[in-house]
Amino acid sequence: MSHFGLFSTEHILSIGGYLLFYLIILFVSQFFSKKSFATVISCFIVIMKTAELVIRNGVYGETIQQLIPIHLCNVTLILAVITMIFPSKNVFQIIYYWSIGAVAAILFPDSRVGFPNFVGISFFVTHFFILFAVVYQMVYSGYRPTLKGFFASFVWINIFAGIVFKINEILGTNYMYINYKPAFQSPLDYFGPWPHYIIIVEIIYVVLGLLCYLPFRKRHFKYTNI
Questions:
Q1: Which member of 13, 41, 70, 201 has the lowest number of beta carbons within 10 Å of its beta carbon?
Q2: Rounded CA gap, 172 and 72, in Å?
């Protein structure tokens, strides 16, 4: 297997196709019970992700320790599934800001195969589901990102990264690409050696997180008599 070309025709069509697919799903969801629809689609995603992991282990020979769901996007996916079934304003805040990682993964995918291979399909479907879960809860639950939520997400991502760093040392893995750079082409290639690229990623996360918050900030207007 080999990575399909970054921003190749296949990559661009994949992004556009899956985006259109989820927009259709969002439109269709309005004709069903919101709770039932969220539960059904979340269960489907769990089944799909489980099947992907089984195939990657049984067919492609990836080991169990390589398939532990502790990459940031996998953890965000788990939280997205949970909060779709059991809505939570606090968990939504984490998912909203951590979904930045899903966007990065879609633009710079660590996917060895593309359409029509099931593993490649699952990669995009599950990553786009994170974004779908955010939009779905904003539309139907009325949730909105907050500045407090951003700070909480920043604290939790650093705590989690510290834990994953130690797990990587023990297992010889590189979850979250925090112990060294990934083998595939990514923006991290331009951010210097370890640990400099981690610091730069932290800064980018803060900048992008604040930008994602700005459209939803509360505006206070002062009126004066002229």
A1: 13
A2: 17
